Every structure is written in structure tokens, then in C-alpha cells.
């Protein structure tokens, strides 16, 4: 068993919030708290490739290292930046974990990913047996819940209606480049919520959003920030939280979502800011924290009404709605929590992501068959299509510019003509 350096604890330790809720939970002493999963990122250098090619490592690293570093194209530089530099000790642990799962035949290609494996290891304090147990339950749950196909199979038509009685949503990125998630839990109207959806459908919706975050939001943020992004900065507005928030269905929803997030999406929370915490909430918080693990608790900042300054330290006002002290209103989308604004909506990033994911599939196939597959052709065709679309846009712009020039000439002639008539 490999236990990571205790020093990590200091890096993310709470600095204490303005409202005086910064005390550490007593149980946190028994667990390590790690820095954000992206922390080891440094600008990639030529040395990275050499290190990866020459490194020893076990069977895991030799056979199963994803082929990211062998891709020769411009995209490989971006991929390397997105992958980030790995901490050698963590990498060693991941290699061992990978080898263990592989030898047991329990490592689906889809999850043979450094950061996914690392998240499970960290959640179980680098106890590989415990991490394996957690990982296997995760695979089983994905099968039972049909998580792999949820984005295709599940349509949440009531999204807009749900957001009206349960205000929440992703909104922009923090200064580091992580997506921001906001929830105004005090404004939840559970009776209305249950009129427009069911608890079961809401949980499914939550899972589909988690999948979107992992497969689209994080990679898009990574492309934009040109570094590895794999966690969320969350803001929970608890203004007006009352007993209604603790009714039976509310408790069910909270527990169910909390269970799914901590068991199957571990280590994806960067920090959680609880804002507008009044005296009532602070009493409830004391009870609530008993349900949260030490690792999660260490990332939570409970703030009263004077939260704007702390939020602005890590988030630009343009990415904060006005109700959180920023200057964004997203009027064209009917409000910030309806907009889902962020790099994941940028068409260029979406196109790049599509090309990159199809090249991943290509390399996965090559790994299995040892041959270049038809997917490589498909990949090339997609790039070609993109280039053609770009060329077409250029042509259109040129045509517009020509038309503009023509108009100018005509106008000039016309002016001359008018002047001739006058004289
Ligand atoms: Zn906005």
C-alpha cells in the first residue's frame, strides 16, 4: 500500500471563512487531503516525451499506457498539455492499480485513463484494494444504471420547467479555467418540482449532467485553458433555506445524489462555496456535515452575506451572475442559470473535441487489432471536412468584401453624378 505525502494537506487546508466556520472536522486528521487533481500540470517540454518512452514501470505501464504520446500531429501537443505532467509517485501507484485491474480482466478500455484511475486511488487514500473495490462497484453501477448510453437514451424535456423551481446550472469558468456550477437551494420549490418531474427522472438528469461534465465540459475547459482541467468549482446559495429543504423527498434527493457523486464521480469537486449562510443554516450545517466525508469537508467554505470578495478572488465578475456579486445577467438566455455558458459551447472547441475523441477511438482500435483501422480514414475525413468548411467561410468573407468594395465604387459614382447634376 502506498500512502502519499502528508504535506499535501496544507495546500488545500481551509484558510477559514469570514463567517468563522473554518474549523476542521475532527475526522479529517485520519485522512489525507490532496491538492486539486490538475495540480501537477506544468508546461509540457520535450523532456516529457522522453520520460514517458524510457520509463520502466510494471506490465501496466508497458502494455496499457494510453497511446497519447505516440500521436504525431499538432493535436498531440494539445493532448499533452491537456494530460498534464504526472506526479511520479502517483503515476507509480496508478501503474500498479492499472496492472492489478488488467490482470483481473476488469479494466474496460474506456476507463483505462490515468486521471480516472487516480481519482479512485485518491478517494481511497491510495489503498489499492479499497480503490479496486470502489472501481468495480462503479463499473457494475454503470452497467445497471446504463450510464454509458444515458446521454443518448435519456431526454430531459422538462429541463426548463425544472430549472424554474430548482434554480441551478453551469455558468462560465473560474480564473484557473474550471467550470463553475451554481445551485440556489433555498429557492427550491419541491412541490412544483414534483409536478413537472419525478425524483427518479431528476436523479437520471443529474447523472446525465455528470457525464456531460466529464466527457464534454472538462475536455472543453482543458482545450481553452491549454491545461488539464478535471474538477468543478461549485457555489451553493443557501439564502432562504428552511425546513422545506429537509422534507422527506428533499432528503431522499440529497442523499441519492450525494451517494452517486461520492461513489461514482469521486474527486471532481475543486471547492464548494456555501454562500448566504444565516444562523439557521449554520445550525443545520452542523448536522449535515456528519454525512460528508473529511475530504469533501476540507473543500467547503461556508460564507455569510459578505461572500463577494472571496468569490472574486477566484472568479472574474464576468463569470459571476449579479446575484453572486458579478456582472453577468445572460439576458439572451433568460438568466444565468439557464444559459449553461462556457467553453463547451464554443463551436471550434466542439469540433476539435470531436476530432480528438475520434482519434482516441482510432488508437483504441489499433491497440486491439495492431492494425490501422478504417477509423483513421474517418478521422482524416473529418479533418478534411473541417478544413473545407473553413475554406468555404473564407470564400464567403472574400465575396462579401468584394461586394462591399463594389458598393463603395457605386456610391462614389453616384455621389459624383449628383454633384455633376448640381453644378
Ligand atoms: Zn450569466
TrEMBL record:
Q: Which SUPFAM superfamilies match?
A: CRAL/TRIO domain, CRAL/TRIO N-terminal domain
UniProt cross-references to Pfam families, sorted A to Z: CRAL_TRIO
Q: Which UniProt keywords apply?
A: Coiled coil, Golgi apparatus, Protein transport, Transport
Mind telling me which InterPro entries this protein's record contains? Answer: CRAL-TRIO_dom, CRAL-TRIO_dom_sf, CRAL/TRIO_N_dom, CRAL/TRIO_N_dom_sf, PI/PC_transfer
Domain of life per record = Eukaryota
Q: Which PROSITE patterns does this entry report, sorted A to Z?
A: CRAL_TRIO (PS50191)
Query: What is the membrane topology listed in the Swiss-Prot or TrEMBL record?
Result: Peripheral membrane protein
The CRAL-TRIO domain, residue ranges: 158-332
From the Swiss-Prot or TrEMBL record, state where the protein is found. Cell membrane; Golgi apparatus membrane
Report which residue ranges the record marks as coiled coil.
Answer: 383-417
SMART domains with a match to the protein in the record = CRAL_TRIO_N, SEC14
- Record-stated family: Belongs to the SFH family.
User: Could you identify this protein by its name?
Assistant: CRAL-TRIO domain-containing protein
Source species: Citrullus colocynthis (colocynth)
